[in-house]
Model the fold of this input.
Amino acid sequence: MVMKAIMPNITDLSNVEALVLIAQLVDQACDESDLDLVDHSLLLANELEKRNLHSREMALLDYFRANAWQCRILQRLGDRTAVWDFEQPEVRQQVFLLRRAMNSPGFVEIDALRRCQILTNLANQLNTLGRFIEAHAYWTDALNIVPNFWMAMANRGRGLMYYSAALYDVGHAQILAVHAYEDITKAIEVARKYPNLGDTRAIPLFSESAEQIARRYKIARIKKAHKPNDWDMGSTSVERQYRRWCLDNVLFLNPLNDIEAASIAAQDILTLPDFITSIGEPPIVVGMFNELKQGFVSARWMLWEGMQSDGPHLSDRDVLLFNTLDYAAFGLSVEKVKIAFRMAYSILDKIAYFLNYYLALDIPEQQVSFRKIWLDGSGKMRDAFATSENWPIRGLYWLSKDLFEKEMRDSTEPDSRALAELRNHLEHKYVKVHEMLLPPTSPDDAFHDTLAYSITRSDLEQRTLRLMKLVRSSLIYLSLGMHREEQRRRKGKDECVATMPLNPLRDG
Done:
């Protein structure tokens, strides 16, 4: 009879000792592909959580738990079908835990290297899920903490490599590929000096990626021809200021803005890829995307104008309002930010409307929404997504979870936790914006508005900015997802296709 090894426990261990043990068990479980040990590690983590942990200890515990879920993820990688499932329960748990660790008050107290590991692991999983734009930002955040953290640098490069491959614009693809090559080759060089800042077992994979890019692109020639700062930023100081703000906040509908805050990226060049329709069928999707794009750039301008204005507008003069003694903020500038939020949010449902038509989902128009488009009436993933290997469209699906799925939404960045609730109040209820928000002095405070959704002006602006970033990502995922779908539709087909060029509209 084979005796099973006795699993260790944490009964007599301090919090610190218990954390160390759990970390060691998770590492061992991953090295040995021992799912029983993974389960036991998570059981010990649940026991430890019942103690009165410091926020720093809780953040570390969530990180170790996330690593345990990573062990389970690795068990699925051998099954290609499972890898491309839109719904990934193990990844979902890991993302949730890493975000909770990142957003914990104790995160800033954790060792810098560990913070980089949390951010890098989160970026890696978001990239896998198709949210490569948000992943790029987290890898960059890690490098801002420890510039030589080559594991983030190399993974950022590989993320850009796949982002490049997803693009339909050859020129943009080349520039992203160059940035990817530079990240990866620099990471390999740094790894020789600081091997402890990453997993050296991954270096052969990174080297192979760099070689793959070098075989496909003439790196030196592309770098020499690339002039990122030789582009017009506008004819007036206001336009230049606005475009600089958009660049710095990564708000241009242009993949180059993800890698460069340079004038070459200061234009909304993103459009739809080439696509095939039946003879006589009008290019409906072009008109739909025109509206989506115009709505976004108009909302972006409204937000910028609302954030720039300090004084009342002429339209605010002689408008009789009463002082409710709670520092309420009124005026056209405040309303512009509100309008920007509502306009941006509405684009998400319009993206669902686009997908319903383009993918022929046949969902009744009244039932189409960004929240509900993914699942059928029984809660099952629609076939168009369940059998898809469309990376950017999967990114759209997981982005929708941040807005509408409570567990995921509550684990996101603090300024996006309440986006859905704020939208509901802006559209249907009552939002009061304050220059500053004071807590009620007592439950009976006569000046505390118990009916309003109260928010400071700065918080409203930051949440709207966060929403604008999510919508920008969504539009890029939509365009590149359509490109991937068109590639799939053409594969293996030998058809006679006539071109139908469309001319751009003139500005003004």
